[in-house]
Amino acid sequence: MTGALDVITMGRVGVDLYPLRSGVPLEEVETFGRFLGGSATNVAVAAARHGRSAAVITRTGADPFGRFVRRALAEYGVDDRFVADVPGLPTPVTFCELFPPDDFPLYFYRFPKAPDLEIRADELDRAAIEAAGVMWATVTGLCAEPSRTATLAALGLRPRSALTVLDLDYRPMFWESAEEAGRWADEALEHATVAVGNLAECQVAVGEREPVRAARALLDRGVRLAVVKRGPEGVLAVAADGETVQAPPVPVPVVNGLGAGDAFGGALCHGLLAGWELPRVIGFANAAGALVASRLACAAAMPASDEVTALMNGAKA
Amino acid sequence: MTGALDVITMGRVGVDLYPLRSGVPLEEVETFGRFLGGSATNVAVAAARHGRSAAVITRTGADPFGRFVRRALAEYGVDDRFVADVPGLPTPVTFCELFPPDDFPLYFYRFPKAPDLEIRADELDRAAIEAAGVMWATVTGLCAEPSRTATLAALGLRPRSALTVLDLDYRPMFWESAEEAGRWADEALEHATVAVGNLAECQVAVGEREPVRAARALLDRGVRLAVVKRGPEGVLAVAADGETVQAPPVPVPVVNGLGAGDAFGGALCHGLLAGWELPRVIGFANAAGALVASRLACAAAMPASDEVTALMNGAKA
């Protein structure tokens, strides 16, 4: 591949082991399906489904599941040039329970340490990160060294005019405390031009969980676009110039809410790169998220643009 | 339950996630079946299938897979009175690859530490351990504290006349070095009256992998029965009085060699408790192991006595 990538994401990868039946407690699940997973990885897959050139900066174990990750990335059209093995650390696996519409507990096996937290700043392809259309990083990438320094370094390489997204992705089990997560999210926000998070994540990052105040607080940190996911209330997006979009939820039968945020993210990258007006960007991302929520898989369920458009047209009709 | 248990085992438990198809590399496996697993647990299940009252001393995470473990134990008729939760440590999961007839790589997720290595000596039911017909412990239980001290304490409670089995079970990934494993195996052998291991495990425990010399070295440590599993060569058992049994392998189509040793162990307990002559004990255990090797599951595949007898009769015919 030559030229700049449209989207580079940086962060988690792993193998998701999901029940093949919904509504069953994990202790009763007899068979599991194996899927590519990890938030940053899913966002890259989602962007690739919209025709964007995408790569993920991540790390796997030197094991069969690591080989699966690369194979799956290739299948989804995500460039794996920034994926490397970390010998001695197993590729993480994650189990979930599916209690639609709104309860999807996760059980992470990211021990003794997730390989994706071993990304080092000196391994980064600085030119590629500088040149990418969108750089997408996550707060989870800040939870341990050397990934924290590497994530901040990657964000610091970006021109201030570029699309640099911080996904406020917060998982309490990866942190000593919410305060610690908030401290590093705050530092990362210095370099971001777009921030995306749900209400709980906004609370951790900027101490606000009322949507309008949370968006305002994110804009106060210097981002040009704040996207606040309000769950059943839809999405609020506020731009630095004051433009505000409220997107209502798209009604779908929810199968698995996991991955919907990543579908939203990949579609958001696509819409921002396309230069669409804000209402279209957010409406498109919102519909993409809804489509994935209506499907069992995450990475494997990321919709192509025409599927998203069809849902938007259907929802309007 | 009143009275002494026939069999108490002590050691590993976990959830086995096995490919639903054989001969496929792990990176290509799309669906996994979920089974009860862990060597000491499997031995208790195997003994229970022969009608023995059995319990396992082990620990799970305080999580859905921990609840599954108890549910499965109940289903298999294994007493769970010595099973407790260890908050903060996930119930281990183990993946395998199935390349019959002799290659079954395991991928353990026993991090940051397996709950079953958190068994403490002060938690042991001393009276129950003293009184049990068979006490079964494993070298893996010696790989970390406090489990090591607890395992040695449990073995030390046993009268010298009792059936006290040390399974030489050695997994390199659980140890700093083979020497360290050998040092603790040696200490545990002081308390054992029966030792069971394959050739590699005998090498670690007593520095010998030639079958007759390995059995002799185990007897020199004070056990009254040394059982050396020779893989495709069958089993060699030598008693302290010199009685020697060579059991040839039982020809079966191998599906999954994992769990065969545990089936052997549970059947060995049964035969020893029954007071059978040594050839019958070893022949029965050997056939039980072969039956499980011919089946996908481990715990779920443990045979009842009549199935073992049928195979023995069939093999003779």
Named CATH architecture of chain A = 3-Layer(aba) Sandwich
What distance lies between the first and last C-alpha atoms of chain A, to the nearest angstrom?
41 Å
As a whole number of angstroms, the C-alpha radius of gyration of chain A is: 18 Å
Total strands of chain A = 14
CATH H-level superfamily of chain A: Ribokinase
Show the largest interface. A-B, 26 and 26 residues
Integer tally of domains of chain A: 1
By CATH reckoning, the class of chain A would read Alpha Beta
What is this structure, in a nutshell?
The structure is a homodimer of 317-residue chains. The first copy, chain A, is of the alpha/beta class and 317 residues long.
